[in-house]
Specification:
The complex is a heterodimer of chains A (118) and B (146). With 118 residues, chain A is of the alpha+beta class. Chain A has two domains: 41 residues, no CATH class; 73 residues, Ribosomal protein L7/L12, C-terminal domain/Adaptor protein ClpS (Ribosomal Protein L30, Chain: A, 2-Layer Sandwich), CATH 3.30.1390.10. Chain A has a three-stranded antiparallel β-sheet with strand order 2-1-3. In chain A, helix 3 packs across helix 4. The two termini of chain A are 16 Å apart. The longest helix of chain B has 32 residues. In chain B, helix 4 packs across helix 5. In chain B, 29% of the residues are buried. Chain B has one domain. In chain B, strands 1-2-3 form a three-stranded antiparallel β-sheet. With 146 residues, chain B is mainly α. In chain B, a hairpin with a 2-residue loop joins strand 1 and strand 2. In chain B, 63% of the residues lie in helices and 9% in strands. Classes of the chains: A alpha+beta (118), B mainly alpha (146). Chains A and B meet through helix 3, helix 5 and strand 3 of A and helix 4, helix 5 and helix 6 of B.
Chain lengths: 118, 146
Amino acid sequence: MLMKRKHTYDNVEVESGFSRLAFLGMTTQPAPPALDPADTDQLDEVWKVVVWNDPVNLIDYVIWVFRKLFGYSEEKATELTMKIHHEGRAVVSDGPRERAEMDCYRLHRHGLWATLEK
Amino acid sequence: MIFRPHSDGYEVRIPPEICAWLAEIPPMLEGLKPGDPAFTRLRLPVYPGDPQADEEWWRWMGSELSTERNADREVFRRVVAQASEGIQVTTEELEAMLRVLVEARLALAARLGIEDEEDYQRLRNEEAVVLQALAELELLILRALG
């Protein structure tokens, strides 16, 4: 899943690279591969990273993780942590699927339970 | 017990009896097997409503996660082996120690069946003491990291 989408992102990179070359007058480059409309839709989709409450992780630790991983201010990290504590869950980041999956990975690495949803 | 900023890194000094106790953590974590609640807690679903996507995520990311967790445990093992005499560690090493302590608390709590905060009330004294001691260590490291 991750590899397939990476390929799609590579296409986007290639396309923007060709655009820059065209600007420099190098117009003999071959056209970039066309994006599959379904893939384009996937790129536009926003995925939410949800962190769930658990009775083990310390509030101070969760705040530290959000500050470290996402660069949030102490105020924002505390607000998210308390939302998780009181409401059971909170959306802590969002973005394209690949980035959301990587955020999820980093949260799991720090012992937090993170899930993905659209 | 000391965890404090020192020149480019942090000074760590832990009494020998606590070092001996902490040294048991990496082998315990490395020995977790499927079916153990601790194993399950450290491999929670990323796509809870989509088993296929979840399996795929764990297939791509699981081995990397396992590699990084093992690297953290190696750091933990090395620091604990020298911490009774005092050792200087980097920020990355101190963070690795913190993650291993978190992993250990999650694993032990899962084995003790802790699913909400009320569950702590029914723990035997020695079980509660272990979880509390690990939490205190976490807090000491968090304070040092700032």
